[in-house]
Amino acid sequence: MAVMRDSDRALFSATELKVIESSTPALIKSYQPRQLNARMVRVRKYADKHRDLVREQQRATKKGPRPGRPQELSNLRSKRKAQLFADALQRFEKRAEQVTKQTLAKQTADEKRAAKGPRRSGAQRETLRRRQQRRQAADAAASQPRIARQLKKTKQRAIQGHIRARGKRQQAKRDSR
C-alpha cells in the first residue's frame, strides 16, 4: 500500500484530493454502508481513468520518445496517481467486506434470537406455563365421556355459533343500506 507524501498532493485536483483523503482509515470507519458504496464507486471511476491514461501513455512511449523529455520520467506522475487511487479503492473494498461480514453476523444472531422466541421475564414464563397446564387439563377433561355428553346436552357451542352468525347477518344488512 502506497503512503501519500506531501509531494503527492500536487498531483491531484481539489476534488481528487478530497476523495483520496476520505479513504483514510479513521474516516472509512465512520461511513455508513451507503456512503461507503458511493465513495467506492467514485474512487473506482478515478482509478479506472488513471489506469487507462497510464496505458495510453505507455503505448505512446513505445512508438518513440518525445523530444525534450526523458522517456522514463514521462509517465511517472500518472503512474503514481493511478497507484494512489488503486490503494484508496483497495481500502474502501476492504472496509466494505468488513461491513458485510458484520451485517451478516448480526443477521444470523437476530435470526437465532427470533427462532428462540421473544425474551420473557420469569413472571411471564410462569404465567405461560400455567396457561399451558390449564389447557392440557381442559383437553384431558373434555375427552372424558361425561363432560362430552354434558356439552352435547347443552348445545352451548351450537347456540354460540347461531348467535354469532345472526350478528354477522344483521351487520351485513346495516352495511348494505
Describe this structure in words.
The protein is mostly helical. The protein has helices at 14-21, 25-28, 33-63, 76-116, 122-142, 145-154, 156-176. The chain has 7 helices and no strands. Helix 3 (33-63) runs antiparallel to helix 4. The N and C termini lie far apart (78 Å).
Number of strands: 0
> Secondary-structure element sequence?
HHHHHHH
Instruction: Report the sheet-strand fraction.
Output: under 5%
Radius of gyration, in Å, reads 37 Å
Mean pLDDT: 81
| SS class | mainly alpha
Number of helices: 7
Unreliable stretches, pLDDT < 50, 5 or more residues?
A: none
Number of domains: 2
Shape: elongated
Largest sheet: none
Counting copies of identical and different chains, the oligomeric state is: single chain
* Terminal Cα span: 78 Å
Helix content: over 70%
Topology:
Layout: H1 14-21, H2 25-28, H3 33-63, H4 76-116, H5 122-142, H6 145-154, H7 156-176
Helix pairs in contact: 3-4
Q: Could you give a short description of this structure?
A:
This protein has helices spanning 14-21, 25-28, 33-63, 76-116, 122-142, 145-154, 156-176. By secondary structure, it is mainly α.
Notable characteristics:
177 residues; mainly alpha; 7 helices; elongated
